[in-house]
Amino acid sequence: MAKQFKRTLITSALPYANGPIHIGHMAGVYIPADIYARYLRLKGEEVIFIGGSDEHGVPITIRARREGVTPQDIVDRYHSLIKKSFEDFGIAFDIYSRTTSEIHRQTTTEFFRTLYDKGEFIEQESEQFYDPEAEQFLADRYITGTCPHCGNPNAYGDQCESCGTSLSPTELIHPKSALSGSTPIMRKTKHWYLPLDKHEEWLRKWILEDHTEWKSNVYGQCKSWLDLGLQPRAVSRDLDWGIPVPVKGAEGKVLYVWFDAPIGYISNTRELLPDTWEKWWKDPETKLIHFIGKDNIVFHCIVFPAMLKAEGSFILPENVPANEFLNLEGDKISTSRNWAVWLHEYLQDFPGKQDVLRYVLTVNAPETKDNDFTWRDFQARNNNELVAIFGNFINRTLTLTHKHFEGQVPARGELTDYDRQTLEDIAGIKERVEGHLDRFHFRDAVKEAMNLARAGNKYLADTEPWKTIKTDRERTATILNLSLQISANLAIVFEPFLPFSAKKLSHLLNKEGLSWSQLGDFDLLSDGHELRKPELLFEKIEDEAIERQIQKLLDTKKTNEEHQHTATPVKENIPFDVFEKIDIRVGTVLECEKVPKADKLLRFLLDDGLQKRTILSGISKWYPQPQELVGKQVCFIANLEPRKLRGMLSEGMILSAENADGSLSLIEPSVNVVPGSEVK
Question: Could you tell me the pTM of the whole model?
């Protein structure tokens, strides 16, 4: 028998306040958490939903250093942007706070001191990289070098972003300090460690025996860690940004962000409910649920529970329904490469379409394996499902009711066998959706909700009220009454998934305040109930809007390739007297045209200052309008032995530069010079 709880505490991973929120964050963590919170609230359960920004850690200090501002400047900027993005998309936190708050500093300090005073930490020295020029120890992200696995020369000390391999700084080939560029040295430093190995036995039973219902990806990752054997983990580090380690002899050290951040769930709850927060964290009748991405599974299933258990008075999570990663157009989402769809930019390009993105990210959620977001699929889901199924059913039902029954719910007459069968088929919608939501299967739940819209569409198509109105008004009234009852059910079932659209639908039906307990009821709208005038719930998204998004990504990819491009190695040296024999000059283009039956070749006629000369060049692909080159000046090798190409004599070689993407650009002087001028 499943354990019964009085209340539910929902937390969602604290996003780093060093950049905006993108669709990967939403699909992995925040939309599932919001759906679950809204669902429980609709059921009338006692629930709070806690969120906040993670504002400590090395990524923030790196960004601050790069921009020449303080870490506080960075977190202030991005905390505000992140919070607004969540508000714009309807992520209904009860509180969204931050880890630079005073109450968080106080809560974290108290938590550490409790464990410290109980002797739960190990104090030991270890050797770590130190930058003698900058005179400070280096966090893993402040060390760069060559990846030993793929040869990427710009790998970080904790991970290679090229091949994705997790690294230790000591594994890097030719490590360098990101602060000064100097080669770091190893130096001893003292830190405090949480001995996870001490907790391994109870963690193994608690996870592997008591929580076999956890998602397979979560359970599997935890089992892998436990099978490898847990090791002590540092809870402090040498850094000047963070919460100071509150013990004597810890000057210049702060609490490691992995220790600091999850305590943010507790401090944010204290901020929200200063007098009653403990019942949410210390009463065993509270169900604690962590929504996170797969990169945080170990911290929330092993490390944070070990911290809570060591403290002694806190409850442990009942479930950690972590999602995998969402990719973008077949490539891993990356903040550093700007390969993402940012929420604030999405709303600029698709104003009022929050629910379209919420729907697509839910129906394609990476629940047990990585999944892919594409703009073509986004368009198809909107046009073929939200518009053509859900929106179409609502619009037809309301329009017909206004046209034939003055916008009032018509009285239901005698039901046919088909009516009864339709009602029977969809009567179990509440049980089916609840079954999926209670097991955190949000993809299946939203598909079940859309099946209700499909059933409504099919019912309208099969009963054809636009035809029956001509011969049987009473039958038409029954059809539209049932269709309106289905519409009201859609307003309920879609509220957790598409809150903006559900609210608009409730407004059109003039029926706010519907509760989850009414889902599956077909007497939600009384006879004669006044409806508001129809409006479209969803709009078709045209090809042009999608092409703009795809082009934006292509431009990003091109920029990334240019930034990552490494010049080809310089060819072997040649004697200077050989170089002196090369005669490079500037010529003015008199004529330029494509060579017939030669896709790549252009024929140039140049004024070289002495005569006219013809040169053939294979750059046609990059200059599709060759006549536009007439009058320009180009650099060419004047003393190259002529040779025949396509039956024409080419008297030299025109010089071009090859870009990172393989494109060629003519070499031109910055100002016009006399034809025949030598390049020195």
Answer: 0.85
